[in-house]
Amino acid sequence: MGTFELIKKLGHESVVFCQDPASGYYAIIAIHSTVLGPAVGGTRVWPYASGDDAIMDALRLSRGMTYKNAVAGLDMGGGKAVIVANSKEIDREKIFRAHGRFIDRLGGNYITAEDVGTSPEDMEIIAKETKFVAGLATKGGDPSPYTGRGVFRAIQAAAKHRWGKDELSDKTIAIQGCGHVGYYLARELHRADAKMVVTDVDSARVQKVVKEFGATAVEPDEIYKVRANIFAPCALGAIINDKTIPQLNVEIVAGGANNQLLEERHGAALAERGILYAPDYVVNGGGIISGSVDLLGWSKERMESSVENIYDTLLSIFRSAEANNILPFQAADRLAEERIRRKAESKKAADVA
Questions:
Q1: What percent of the chain lies above the pLDDT cut of 90?
Q2: Dihedrals φ, ψ of 338, to 5°?
Q3: pTM for the full model?
Q4: Domain 144-336: CATH superfamily, name plus number
Q5: Catalytically annotated residue among 68, 80, 171, 195
C-alpha cells in the first residue's frame, strides 16, 4: 500500500516531511485529527531502518494518540513526530531547535511532548523556538511516573475482570522494557508485592530494576516464553505478532507500549488462545493525562483522579466487549470514535448556526 493510500485509510489530516541538512535533522510530523482539539503527541527519536518504517510508525502512533486522547476524555486531537536518528549520537541543541522551528510553522495544530528517545530537557530546547510544546522540565516534567501508575491500574482492572479480584501479590508479571515507564511500573508492582520477570536491551536498566525491586532478569528474546500471569510490554510496538503469540505463557497482556498489535488480526489471535488483551492506548493514557495540567489548565488533583480512572474505564470496556460480542480493542475503538463523531457533529451544527 502506498503512502497516500495509507494516509487515506487511517484518516490523517496532514503529514509533514521535515529536513534541515545543516543540523542532520530529518523528521515526520503526522497530524491524525484535530476534531477534539490541537493534535497532541510526543516526539520520538529512533534510527529507523528505512523511510517507510518511519512513516508507518508516525502514522500508527498519531492515530493511536487520537484514540488515546478521546478515550481519556481530553479535549485534544492526535499527532506524533518521529525524528530519524540515533538519540545517543545527535547534537541535541541543533536537532531540537530545528524541530521546534518546524512545529512552530504549524501554528498550534500540533503540540509536542516527550516520547522514546527524548526527555523534558529536550522539550526545553524545543521551547526556545515554539510555544507549542509540553512536558517541560520547568513545568509538568517527566510524564513517566503517571504512565506507569496508569499501567498499574490497568493491570489491576484486567486482573479484576479475569480473576474476580485485583490483588496482585500472588501474580507474576513479565515486563518487557525497563526504561522510564517500565521502571515506574515495576515500582508500583513491587509495592503491591507482585513477582516480576524483566528484560531490556539495556542491561543497566535491567540491573536497576533487579536491584531495587527484586525482579528476576531474562534475555530479551526469552521474555515471551516466561511462564507468568501477565505480560506487560513497555518498550516498542508491534511485538504481538505471528512469531510471538505462540510463545506466550500468560493469561493477560497489559502494558505501556504503543501499538502492541502488529495487525488487528493479532488481537483476535490472542483471544483465540484465551489471552485477555487490554487495549494499549487505554492502558498507557496516564502520560498524556498528566499533560492536562499544562495543556488544559487542570488541577493536579483532577489530573491524578483521571489517571486513577483508567481502572474504571478499562473495566467498562471489557464489559462492553462482552455485551456486544466483540474484542476489547474493538470496544475501545468504538468508545473513541463515538466521542469524536459527537464532537464533529457539534462543530458542524455550530458552523451552520
A1: 87
A2: -65, -40
A3: 0.91
A4: NAD(P)-binding Rossmann-like Domain (3.40.50.720)
A5: 80
